[in-house]
Structure formats: structure tokens, C-alpha cells
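Review form for a predicted model. The reviewer records the input and the model, then writes brief findings.
Reviewer: anonymous (R2)
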Amino acid sequence: MNTDVVKSNIETCLITWLKKIPLISLYAGTRGWSYLISWSHRITGILMVICLWAYLYGFHALQASQKLYILLLLLWMLSIPMAFHVCNGARLILYECFGNRNDDAMIRSVFALSFIYVVILGMLILMGNQTVSPFLYWVIMFTQALVVAYGVAARILTSRHSVLWKMQRISGSFLLITVPAYFLFIPLHPSPQIEANFLITGIQGLFLMSVYILLLLCVLFHAGYGVWSVMSDYLSSRNLGKGLAALITLVTLVFAWIGLLATLSF
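Model under review:
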């Protein structure tokens, strides 16, 4: 069977189904699909920020106590907006930093890769019998993330954009690998007692602790700057913008402190 025909049929079915949703149908017809995807990226980003704060405040402790099926189900459900946000973020980085203008193919890739990732994660959760070495797993993922982040940094460091804009894209490129890797790691890692003993011993434990802290700080900065970018678009007052920036910075620092304490005491 012709693969182009299959892809066309799948896209037609998806678009037909999406157009049955009144709000999506309205904006798709008046603003276009690019507008909807842009707003979906913002909405999923804000959802991820809320879940991150909830996670730092209590989810990690619950998950470390025992692998409750309800928490793994919540993890899988959260992976759906996460996968879309990450894949679409990769598309935006390719567009903004590398000039990739093949938008139709990239949008198809965003949905296809998101779907594949969510299915793989669901399979790992359902099997529940797969384990990996935490140290080896994070050496591989961390190395890949650094390579991607370096490539983006080398591309944009000399551009005329602001420092915060550059940091947002560099941190985002680092998170393209590490955030999906962390979601996969939860159903893959050994029992919490084994990991805890592993973390507190030797150079390997120091490396893992450093990875977790860097991941935490990158996520918090990326999330905080992302929230500020979205909300500042709707503020006409410069003073309100400064106040918002101060508030977001304060909240981000508070949760950074909570996250650091939780990580260091793990």
C-alpha cells in the first residue's frame, strides 16, 4: 500500500475528528492550524509548569514511597502534553535557530513522534519488569543532551537576541533529551531503596546528583521564562511587566530551593 495514501488518510481522519470540537473548529477556520499549534504549545507549557510545582511539592515523595499504579497512570497522562511540548519545542528550535522552514513535514513529525513516545512509555509502565542501571542510563542521556545544547548554543550565541532568549533556547535544547528521558526513567529504575543506596555512594552518586540538580534548574528557568513570555504578551504596562517578572522569579527561586533540598536529601 502506498505510504503517502496511508498518511493522507490518517491526517484526513484526524482533522475531521478535530473539527468536530467547536473551539478547535472555530480557530482552525479563522486563524489556521499554525495558530492552534502555537497556542497548544503555550497551554501544554503552562500545564507542565503547574505539574512541575506540584511534583516538587509532593509527588516525588509519594513516588519514592512505592510505585502506586495511580501515580504511574498520572505519569502516562502527563506524558501526552509533555511529549507534544518537547517535540514542538524541537520544531521551534529548528525553525528559529537553524532556519528549517519545512513546516508541514515538521508538524507531522511532532504528532508522530509524540504518539510513538507515549505508546512506548505506556508499554514500559504496563510491563513493569524492565530495569536499567541509573548511572549508565544517565551517562548516555546526559551526553546526548549536552551535545544538542552545545549545537544550539554554538548557533545562537553570537546572535542579537537577548541573553534570556538565548538561555531559554539552550535550556530548552538540553531538556529535549533529559525531560523525556526522566519520564522513561521512572518505570525503568530499580526500587527506591536500591537507588537511594546507589546515589549516596561514590563518584557515580555524585554524577547522578549533579544531573538531577542541573535538570531541575534548567526546567525551572525554562518554565519561569516561558510563563513570563506568555503573560507579558497581555500586559501593556511596563511596571506590571516588571512586577510580574519579580513575582515569577520569586516563585521560581522558592521552588528551586524546595527541589534542591529534596534532591540533596534523597
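Findings: Residues 32-264 form a domain with the 3 helical TM bundles of succinate and fumarate reductases fold (CATH 1.20.1300).
Further findings: The chain has one domain: 32-264.
Recommendation: see findings above.
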